Amino acid sequence: MAKGIKRIAVFTSGGDAPGMNAAIRAVVRAATYHNLHVYGIQRGYDGMIHGQIARLETSDVGNIIHRGGTILKTARSKEFMTVEGRRLAYESLVANDIDGCVAIGGNGTFTGAKIFSEEYDIPMIGIPGTIDNDLYGTDFTIGFDTAINTAMEAADKIRDTADSHNRLFFVEVMGRHAGYIALHSAIGCGASGMIIPEVNFTIESLVKTLKQGAKRKKPFGLIIVAEGNPLGGATEIAKKVQAKFDYYDTKVAIIGHLQRGGSPTCSDRVLATRLGHGSVEALLDGQNNVMIGLINNKIVYTTFADAIEKGKPIDEDVIKMANILAL
Ligand code: F6P
After folding, report:
1. How many CB atoms lie within 10 A of CB 211?
2. Angle formed by the axes of helices 83-95 and 107-119, to 10°?
3. Model-level pTM?
4. Helical H runs in 137-256?
């Protein structure tokens, strides 16, 4: 067991994700069980820099497991990316006698955590909290399951109106540079196709597929577009397709930040709870500079460097299957 861990701080950073509150709750309650004092940092690294640190008791995290967003608020801190910002952050942790930190966030959060861990000696454990599911070292990130269900439900509703009007819809989902949200929501809603960054698409190949569907008198089309794909956003793609293929009236729906909110699914709450609890055990075990994740239902640790740099390729067989079934 690591000596001297008595006071820990927890914060959320980057884009919020449903389930972050469940993770905060688990950190606070697990730490309290181990007789540690827990502090919550408001607004991620920005709050760390500016000393927005306050004690969190077990009762402060009651009635939050089901709530989207984050009670600690979040930010994408530009200041923490500077040497001076990180120095101020360190001083503020020292001023509050913090012996270890739990950072809940995604790529940007762990990039900051990696640099900070290389410069300063306060142990840091990362919990993967992002709807994008784009981190190496965990099968799923907190928030992904809720986001794909939100995207799927939205696409289901669009399907009704698409069918009624015999229209072709391009539905744009989030995911930054990764196609996980698009792939899973496309499979879940039985979309006619998907455009994801991991696969090379051309407008021509897309039009060819749509023509095949039209030949079979397919009444409507539903294409899920990952925001990060190189062909452009749904609006741009829809315009290009409509210019070459006008069998359907073409429409666009961008789901946007709806995917970031809402009550977390049970899977996200369980994942967040296991990782939150595990992060405290990790600090007590002397872990540092690692992200905690679940692979094949087992807790694993991955260095921040690997978590952000190694990438998590989408299984080719799943892509192939989605394409076969969409025809
Ligand atoms: O990383 C989560 C995410 O929702 C991405 O899917 C999206 O590209 C981005 O954040 C949007 O960020 P913001 O809320 O800052 O516009």
Report:
1. 12
2. 70
3. 0.97
4. 144-165, 180-189, 203-215, 234-244
Ligand 1 atom nearest to CA at 181: 6
Is the CB of residue 44 less than 8 Å from the CB of residue 168? no
Backbone angles phi, psi at 300, to 5 degrees: -135, 155
Give the Cα separation of 283 and 139 in Å (integer): 22
Hey, whose CA ends up nearest to atom 9 of ligand 1? 176
Burial class (CB in 10 A: 0-12, 13-18, 19+), 103: buried
What domains lie within the chain, and their CATH numbers?
7-143+264-309 (3.40.50.450), 145-260 (3.40.50.460)
Give the per-residue pLDDT at 4.
86
Who lines ligand 1 at CB under 6 A? 15, 106, 130-132, 174-176, 227, 260
Condensed to tens digits (0 to 9), the pLDDT of residues 28-44 reads 999 999 999 999 999 99
Q: What is the mean pLDDT of residues 71-79?
A: 98
DSSP summary character for residue 314: P
Using pLDDT thresholds of 50, 70 and 90, give the confidence band for residue 326: confident
| Residue written as token pair 């955590």 | 113
> How many C-alpha atoms does 194 have within 13 Å on its Cβ side?
34
Q: What residues have CB less than 8 Å from 18, skipping those under 6 apart?
A: 68, 69, 131, 142, 143, 146, 147, 260, 261, 262, 263, 264, 265, 268
Sign of torsion, CA 96 73 289 65? positive
Residue 195 DSSP class: E
Q: Which ligand 1 atom is the nearest neighbour of the CA of 17?
A: 2
CA atoms within 13 Å, Cβ hemisphere of 291: 33
pLDDT tens profile 130-157: 999 999 999 999 999 999 999 999 999 9
Mean pLDDT of 56-70: 98
